[in-house]
Structure to design on (329 residues):
């Protein structure tokens, strides 16, 4: 999404709020863009930065061709600073480095922008240091914070930002986009549930990692339904080695959640809701006979709790061990 007219198709309200500010020359000193993965947070942040630096602005849209636009796209603009988690969190030292940068004049203008990805991973010390920027706003400084989990951001930061809620995109519309781009229908259903980012979905559809992750989730469920005692060994020998970082681990839990949802839908006869499994897969019937409806709901809650623990930086191996014990019947 390169223009506000493209963003308005998927995020009409958020787009209208920001573009009205642009037209009135009242861009906020701090935004908190909150929404699920793939809802356009980063694209909107980049567009805001381009509007502030573009050399040939066309109304509210940047030209996309000038040096500033191109450098912002490549994260190489000297006055647009990006902060991303260093490992599992954004640390105090990263914010201190940003503070030092902001003591200098802009290299090409007095305006500066900083964009914080996964702002919910700010440590307490880092959060307190970010507050200094937000409590002493400069007209020439714009902060843009991106998060999927705004409730993990301390209230004092939230209160100093203009909070923009991004709505989940329509999976049916996105599924059609994927099918039009050559992705098989069943896989398109799964991908449209996991992400609303077209390029990300296309990349996943061709990744060996993603195909193997789907296969491992099927194997785990099969083991849990036939020989539960072997589940613990399976996650250590196959699952954990494949899910190497937090993004992989969260994606794996998303797949597992969708798989168990399908089992529950099979139990209640709602095949139209299937996302992970092909309706003809024999494992559905086997798993549905293994678990009661109450047990399946408990497992779904356990997977959601495991996702929250990962966000809270609980050791991943421990998270998956505990989850496996909860899934064993």
């Amino acid at each position: 999404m390169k223009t506000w007219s493209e963003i308005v198709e998927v995020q009409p309200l958020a787009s209208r709020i920001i573009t009205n500010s642009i037209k009135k020359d009242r861009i906020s000193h701090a935004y908190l863009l909150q929404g699920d993965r793939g809802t356009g947070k980063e694209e909107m942040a980049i567009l805001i930065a381009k509007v502030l630096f573009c050399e040939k602005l066309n109304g509210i849209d940047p030209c996309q061709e000038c040096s500033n636009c191109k450098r912002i796209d490549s994260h190489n603009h000297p006055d647009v600073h990006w902060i991303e988690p260093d490992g599992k969190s954004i640390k105090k030292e990263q914010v201190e480095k940003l503070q030092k940068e902001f003591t200098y004049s802009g290299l090409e203008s007095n305006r500066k922008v900083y964009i914080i990805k996964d702002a919910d991973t700010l440590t307490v010390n880092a959060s307190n240091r970010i507050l200094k920027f937000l409590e002493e706003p400069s007209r020439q400084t714009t902060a843009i914070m991106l998060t999927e989990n705004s409730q993990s951001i301390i209230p004092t930061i939230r209160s100093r930002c203009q909070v923009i809620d991004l709505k989940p995109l329509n999976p049916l519309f996105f599924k059609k986009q994927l099918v039009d781009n050559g992705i098989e229908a069943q896989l398109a259903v799964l991908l449209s549930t996991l992400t609303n980012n077209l390029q990300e979905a296309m990349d996943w559809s061709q990744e060996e990692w993603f195909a193997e992750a789907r296969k491992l989730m099927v194997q785990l469920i099969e083991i849990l339904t036939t020989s539960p005692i072997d589940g613990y060994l399976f996650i250590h020998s196959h699952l954990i080695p494949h899910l190497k970082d937090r993004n992989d681990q969260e994606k794996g839990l998303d797949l597992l959640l969708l798989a168990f949802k399908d089992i529950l839908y099979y139990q209640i006869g709602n095949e139209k809701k299937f996302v992970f499994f092909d309706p003809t897969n024999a494992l559905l019937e086997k798993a549905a006979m293994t678990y009661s409806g109450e047990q399946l709901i408990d497992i779904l809650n356990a997977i959601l709790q495991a996702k929250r623990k990962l966000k809270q930086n609980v050791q991943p191996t421990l998270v998956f061990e505990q989850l496996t014990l909860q899934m064993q019947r």
The chain has 16 helices and five strands. The first strand starts at residue 30 and ends at 34. Residues 207-327 form a domain with the Zinc Finger, Delta Prime; domain 3 fold (CATH 1.20.272.10). The radius of gyration is 22 Å.
